[in-house]
Amino acid sequence: MSARSVLPDNKTKTILISIAAVIVLFIGVLIYLAVKANEDNKIAALKYNFNKYYPSTYNTVEELDPDADYDGDGINNSSEKETKTRIVSADSDNDGLIDADETNYGTDPLNADSDGDGIKDGVEVRAHLDPLSLISDGHTKDEERTFIRYMQLDEANVTVMGKAHIYAATLDKLTLNAVASNAGAISAPYEFHCDGEFDSAELTLNFNAVYAKAAGYTQENIRIYKFDPYLKKYNTVGGSIDVSKGVATVEMKENGVYLLGAENIIHDAAEAYGSELMNVHILIDNSGSMYPKSYQSTSKENDVEFKRLAFAKNFVTALDNSVKFSISVFTYEFRNLIEFTADKSRILPAISSIKQLGPGFDGTSVERAAMLGLESFGEDTRSERNIIILLTDGISTDAAGFKVSDIVSTAKGKNVTIMTIGLGDEVDTELLAEIANSTGGSYYPISEASVLEGLYSTMIASMEDDIVDDDFDGTPDSYTLFDTGFDPDVNGFSFQNFKSKTNGTLDFGMVTLARDWFRGNVRKALGNADSEMSYTFEGTTISTTEPLRKVMLQLMQEPWIRPDDYLNFLSGGKVLKVRSEDAAASQEKGWVKSEIPYTDAGTDWEKAEILVPNHTASTIRTKYSENDYAMLRAIHYYELSRNSGESFSLSSEAQLLRVKSILATGTPIVTKIIWQDENGSVCSRFVLMTMLRRDLENPNIFKIKVYDVNSKFISTIIVNRTIRVNGPGDRDFTYTANWDNKQVALSCWLTEVS
């Protein structure tokens, strides 16, 4: 039988065709999914690359000014670029010789130890060694020689013996509130620190024998103590004391904080410091010089707006409801307005009543006011924390027979710390500082009354425990030296930095506005109302008396804040473009396109479009609110002052002291951070310096806390100090700063916006 072909019938054909179609469709879906996955992966990679790049666009890339000296070392940027020394560090190798001085000694500014003997160049010069020789005297290796060094600071003297590195040792007088405010402290606390071992170190403390005698301290109850900052305890360290001569001497076995104190009293006061009970007596000068000339023709008109009352009210309001207050006014006469009470409904009206009292014209007596203020503290308050805040704008015309020693001995006996404020340029600074320093308080010189309103936060911060756990690991690690009280979560913006059509970044405008807002120094309107360069809060619900954090902007809730939410990462050509639907929607609400330089490997892009709110567009006020429009313009108005006003680099002891004096008034400092990126480009960013801390064990490490509108978190700048060789004596240092894992220069700006 012969074979024959069997042809499929129509039904079979249909099935086969259907199967083939399904297979083709399945393959098509697989291909689509593969292409889509590849496209999604590509977009994800491009987004990732863009998000890594975009934050850096909030840094200002500056053209290097060849004639400027960013680090203040006496060498301009052009010369430093040639020698390859750092333009952001006065001491490129951190050896104690600033770059400009290395040439004088023939040392290498990029090598801290030019002769390789293990001793830094700056230390060798201070020890009178040759930093280019291993055997400076021709007989003994420098590293094996023993030296004796004498150190002196105010009432403290140290004689230290050891190898050459003792010339890098430091002696500091601490303003540590936890110790200085102790009623049992007879001397200020002094800290000796030496990296490495030393053979011996003798500390001599000179103290005021008159104060000691007036306070009832005798040879039998005075001791030399070493303070333990972790346990906040005082441990005796032996030594010898001569009360008649006012001299105490002790052999120091280790680094630490040493002071002279009265036995028993110092321990009782330490417990009182930790007490939750606090009594604060506020003494306010009410002399004619505070009032308008209509009251007194010769008045300095130091506080015609009664900022001193706002200060007192802020102080009372900010402290816990358990704190008791007493309020008094004084000229020569002294008048108590309310005795100690924690009832703020009575305290605040008592402060307000000062306006109705009118000025006094019988002279001024700071001494009498202090003594009468001390009378308000009795035996029942000795175990509690007791503080007097004395504010005056004049010089005592009559001491009423009281001496500073009377005030100090009485304050010590009653466990009272006195904090003094001198307002204006006609105050007895020496008297106010002596009263404060001798009782463990601080003196605050204030040039004008407008500063008073914000000063309360700094003073409260200084009253709080200044031994802190900076890294929140459960162990104290820092001293708080100065705290303006600026809290970014309260006093900062509710939104982060952003760009505009005319400005690549608005960090300067934002931090400067935040500073003035915190100081209560923002004017409701500035500039010409018809001009683009102006703003006004009139007609808005924005109140500059409320925390800045409460100002919420509707436009900052838009999806156009994050570029990765609206960019078309499949854009062709030279520009990474905004999606068309976002471009149209944002334009309707007053946003505009702006371009930033951008390249990404594997693409042809040279620029990227971003969306920014247009501060001049009236659409903003109609589509959002008058608040949004006003705040946007205020930030831009402040931004106009970028790089204006006085500035100074933080690179020496004199400049650090200047920083401290500003922070002490409760004023945050607008600070420019300058660095070089990996490509050598000079970048900068403006932040707000709010607090200065110091390492608990190493007095050469400082921590500057800054508010950075580009970040959600508090930034910390680590500053290291090194004894400067050619400074005046032992008290000049160079300072080098590091931030965000890079070395930076810090420039402080004192810009006032008007």
Please summarize what this structure is:
The chain is of the alpha+beta class and 754 residues long.
Number of strands: 31
Stated plainly, the CATH topology of the domain at 276-464 is called: Rossmann fold
CATH architecture of the domain at 276-464: 3-Layer(aba) Sandwich
C-alpha geometry: globular
Structure explained in plain terms:
Strand 13 and strand 14 form a beta hairpin. The chain contains 20 helices and 31 strands. The strands form six sheets. The chain has a six-stranded antiparallel barrel. Strands 14-13-12-15-16-17 form a six-stranded mixed β-sheet, with helices on both faces. The N and C termini lie far apart (114 Å). The model has no long low-confidence stretch (mean pLDDT 88). Among the domains are: 125 residues, Chondroitinase Ac, Chain A, domain 3; 189 residues, von Willebrand factor, type A domain (Rossmann fold, 3-Layer(aba) Sandwich), CATH 3.40.50; 114 residues, no CATH class. With 754 residues, it is α+β, with helices and mostly antiparallel strands. Helices cover 27% and strands 25% of the residues.
